[in-house]
Amino acid sequence: MRATTTTTTTTTGPQRRTVGPVGTTARIAGGIGLVLLAVLWRDPHWTDVAVGLVVLPAVAVGLLGWRARRNPGRLDATGPVAHWVNAAVFTPLFLIPATVGGAFLFYGSSMLVAGARRSGGCEVTAIANVALGRDDQVGCVLFAPIDAVEAGGR
Questions:
Q1: Which domain holds residue 25?
Q2: 2 lies in some domain
């Protein structure tokens, strides 16, 4: 079994937090599943692609970039409150008919990026971290338990 490490720092720059094989597989499987849902669950529309692959990533990059200019240190919002805030943001995106297809594409593609990079934390920051060369992390209701169990076994 290959050992993996988790690196966390308070500096800026492309610091990678590696996750183990279960976390990586979960992110890739989840990403594939959400992209398939975007295509198969309902009749996809070009606006789904625009929202999911342009608008939502641009919002994430914009918000994290704005935050980085104001506070260049690494964002590490991974506590219980951050988990709830993150859930409060993504839940409506999956419930509003106009954004559900785009949300599936955004979160699915973000999970694929996070899985490919083996980056820990929530997938919502994965694309922004690549674009900005950062390692900002926010709480993730879905992957935090997997990552915690996997980190305990190292």
A1: 21-152
A2: no
pTM: 0.85
How far is C-alpha 93 from the geometric centre of its chain's CA atoms? 14
pLDDT of 147 > 50? The answer is yes
| Residue-wise pLDDT tens digits, 75-102 | 999 888 988 988 998 999 999 999 999 9
Residue 29 lies in a domain: yes
Q: Within a domain: residue 86?
A: yes
Residue 137 domain flag: yes
Residue 123's nearest CA partner among 22, 7, 4, 26 is 26
Total number of domains in the chain: 1
Query: Considering just the CA atoms, what is the radius of gyration of the chain in Å?
Result: 15
- Which tokens is 104 given? 């599936």
Contact call for residues 136 and 125 (beta carbons, < 8 A): yes
Predicted confidence (pLDDT) per residue in 101-124, tens digit: 999 999 999 999 999 999 888 889
In terms of Cα–Cα distance, which of 102, 90, 100, 96 is closest to 143? 90
Q: Which two tokens stand for residue 2?
A: 């290959």
Look at the chain and count its residues: 154
